[in-house]
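RETRY 2/3 - previous attempt timed out on the joint model. Re-submitting the same 549-residue input unchanged.
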Amino acid sequence: EIQIASLLKSSELFPIPQGLKLSYGTAGFRGDAKLLESTVYRVGILSALRSLKLGSSTIGLMITASHNKVSDNGIKVSDPSGGMLSQEWEPFADQIANAASPQELVSLIREFVEKEEIKIGEYKAAEVWLGRDSRPSGESLLRAAEIGVDSVLGSVSVDIGVLTTPQLHWMVRAKNKGLKATENNYFENLSTSFRCLVDLIPINGNNKFEISKLLVDGANGVGGQKIEMLRGSLSNLDLEIRNTGRDGGVLNEGVGADFVQKEKVLPLGFGLKDVGMRCASLDGDADRLVYFYVPSDSTSDVKVELLDGDKILSLFALFMKEQLNVLDDGKEGKQSRLGVVQTAYANGASTDYLKQLGLDVVFAKTGVKHLHEKAAEFDIGIYFEANGHGTILFSESFLSWLVTKQKDLTTKGQGGSEEQKAVSRLVAVSNLINQAVGDALSGVLLVEVILQHIGWSIQKWNELYKDLPSRQIKVEVPDRTAVVTTSQETEALRPLGIQDAINSEIKNYSRGRAFIRPSGTEDVVRVYAEASTQEAADSLANSVAELVK
Ligand code: NG1
Ligand code: ZN
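RETRY 2/3 succeeded.
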C-alpha cells in the first residue's frame, strides 16, 4: 500500500492533457512533445514492471520521434533482448497511457500486476536504461520517465544520455548477455569487426579500387554526431559528414533518410557539386539508412538517384549468399537457410531480383517488430523496409556452428583457405551488424566494406536492378482509424467499397500496384503506388489519394 501511495503521488505531477488519445503504434507512442510528459512517465512505470516481470533484466527506454518533425517526440521500449517490447504488453501500454485520472491509472496497474503475477519488491533491483535523441524536449521527458521508473518499488532508472536508437538497443542487449555494454564498447565493436572484414578483402584484380569519399547526411540529428565520434577509429573509410545539426540546420527539415526516400529529392547541403559521389543519408535517430547520388546527366534541375532499403538488402543478400556458397560447396559444408523479409512497400523490381537470386522472400506487416520476427526464423534472415530500416539476424545455433567451424579450421591448419575466410567474414558480419534493430551506423560500414570487397561503385551497385517507378503520398484525414486493412496491409477492408474503387484505378495502369494504410507514427493515411512510368505511378497515387480524401 505504500507502493500505491507513491504511485498516486507521482502521477499527480503528470496530469493527462485533455482529449489526448494515444496508441502504441509501429514505433511506440509519438506526438507533439508538449503533450507527452504523462505518457512518458507512465511508460516509465510500465518498463519498471516489465523488468520486474523478467527477473530484473535490464529494459531500455528510448525517447525519440525518429524522422518526425523536431517539435514531436515519442517513447519506445526495448525488451531485454534489445528487440521491441513484446506485443503482448502493448494493450497495457495503451490502457495506462490513456487512463483519465491517477486513480484509474493506479487501479489499472494493480490489476495488471496481479494478472501477470509481478512480484514487486521481491527480486533484486529492476533496472531501466534511459536514452534520448537530440531533440530539445528530450531532457525534460527523460526526467518524467525517471520519475515513473523510480516510483515503482525496487526499480532504478539509469540515464545513459544522448544516443541513437540502435545504440540504446545494442547496449541493453549486451548488458543482458553479460557483455561490456558502454557506448565505447559499441564503437569498439563496430571498428573491430569492420577492420576484420577489411582485412579479409581478397587481393585480386577486380578490386584495385580507389576508396572514394563517402558523403553523409546526418539529418541534423544524433546520428551525424555519433558517426563523427566513430570516424577516428576507422581506417579504410573516408567520410565527410554534413548536416550534423551544429551549423544551424533543423532536425529532419529538408534532410534525412525519410525525406530523401519519400520525396526523392536531395537533402539540403547537397547539390550539383556532388555529381557522381557516393552519398548516404541517416534518419533522425539513426536507425534508417539510404544511399543516393546525383547522376551525371543532372543539369540545373538536380536529380537524385536513390538506393533505398531494398537495394541495401539486395547488396547484403548477394554478399551473404556468396559466403554461404563457399561453405555449402565445401565438403564439410552445411546447407544453411538464408531468407529475406520485405513489406508491401518494397519495390516490385527488388522482389523479382531477390527471387531470381534463388532466395526465400517473405512478407511482413509494416514496422520492424513484424519483420524482425519473421527474419528470426532463418539461419540468416535479412530484413529491410524500403525506407532503410533493416538488419541481418543470425540464429544462435547457426552462429555457434560458425564459431566452432572457425576454430576447427584454424587448428587443422587451414587458416588461409577460402572456406575459412568465408566463415570469418560471416562471423565478422554478425558482430558488425546490429542484431537488436536496424542501425544506420553499422549499415554504412557493411555497405562500404562490401563495395570495397567486390570493387563496385555506387552506380554499379544501383544497376543490380532498376526500380519500378513509385510514388508515396500522405493524406491528412479527420480520422485515420477509419481505414482498416487486411493483415498483409495490401487490401483495405474499411471504408466499405474503397478497395473496389482502388482496384478499378489500378486496372488502368500497366504493372500497376497500389494500397493504402493508416500510419502508425503520424496522423495520416499513406498511399503507395507503382507503375511502369513515373507519370503513371504519380497519377495512380493521386487518384487513390482522391478516394481517401
Ligand atoms: P508508419 O507511419 O506506420 O507508416 C513509419 C514507416 C515504417 C516504420 C515506422 C517506424 C513507412 C511507409 N512507414 O511507419 O516503415 O519505419 O515509421 O519508424 O516508411
Ligand atoms: Zn528512425
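The first strand starts at residue 29 and ends at 32. Closing ticket.
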